[in-house]
Amino acid sequence: NYNIYYKDGTLTLRAAALPDYLLVPGETTIHLVGENTIGTKDSPTDVGIQGVTPGAITITGPGSCSIHSSAEGIITVQPDSATDPQVTSDIRLQGGTINTNGSSISTRYGGICITGSAQVMAGSLSTGGDPNTEETQRARDLVISGRASVTAERLSALQQIQITGSATVTVENPAGIAINGNRGIAISDQARVTAIGTTGGLNAFSGPITIDSTGKTIAQATDTTRNYAAISMGQGDSALSLLTIRGETAVSGAVGIGSSQGSILIDASALEITATYAGIINSTSSSETKITVQNSAQVSITSSGPAGISASSGTVYTVSAVEPPTVRMPLL
Q1: Alpha-carbon gap, residue 269 to 109, rounded angstroms
Q2: How many CB atoms lie within 10 A of CB 175?
Q3: pLDDT tens by residue, 35-58
């Protein structure tokens, strides 16, 4: 009989109640059996689980872990190994039910991969530290795949955010953007995503956004006192990117979809937009950019503001569809 057992790099927690934080060396696998706790609501730890040397933290197993901490729920702060390229400071959640009760899951230099049948509930999930240092080059993607389920207040990555497989992701941020992939966001396969934030649902500062899933994507910017977009791209880069929608998508906000630097392609999809200012805005001045609706895409825009689709003087708006799309607002 045991509650905690360590052998050959695997730490098994079996109905363990840990009163304080759990510090583990890098390359440790934590296997969950039964219901486990770290800290309590009345006596939270400073940190739940932390890697103290280079290497990944991997969580597996059929059990659960409830973490009560005042700061980070799960964190790695060490850089990758300087001598072994296979030793990376990632966080890999591959099974079990992990609830950080509002605290964050973050890695400063690595990536986060949530896959398998893992169920994760957290305040925020983030990869990368300071975007103005070399950390932005070291950080890796935030990937949610398989049959994983994630409920959080915020997803943020200095690189890309990828949501794929049959994953289900629900993010509601009461004070900011829900899902922010600095260098891009990709939603594919059968993934289902709900992203609701006061200042935006999906945002990529310096990379493309692609929604190409048979599952539905919902994005909302709930603060309509300013012209925040439910889906936005290109505010932080001079390079042109592409915002592509090929799956069923419903957006709402002051602006439905906005691009500051790049083209917008709505391809063979069902897109429903509810806006108080404009349905789609492309403010890029380059003559190389376009707003394109094609291949039987059905676009429905309901706006109480002045515009359905607003394009700057350099942007070309084209419709090339097997069947004419439904765009129910005037163009500016």
Answers
A1: 37
A2: 10
A3: 999 999 999 999 999 999 999 999
Sole residue written with tokens 């403010």: 283
Considering the entire predicted model, what is its pTM? 0.93
Distance of CA 122 to the CA centre of its chain: 13
DSSP designation for 80 = P
Helix (H) or strand (E) holding 99: strand 97-99
Structure tokens at 301: 């825009």
Answer yes or no: are the C-beta atoms of 188 and 170 closer than 8 Å: no
Q: Degrees (nearest 5) of the Cα angle 28, 69, 76? A: 35
List pLDDT tens digits, range 213-257.
Answer: 999 999 999 999 999 999 999 887 667 899 999 999 999 999 999
CA 36 from centre of chain: 27
**CB 159 within 8 Å of CB 134:** no
Cβ burial of 225 (10 Å; 0-12, 13-18, 19+) is: exposed
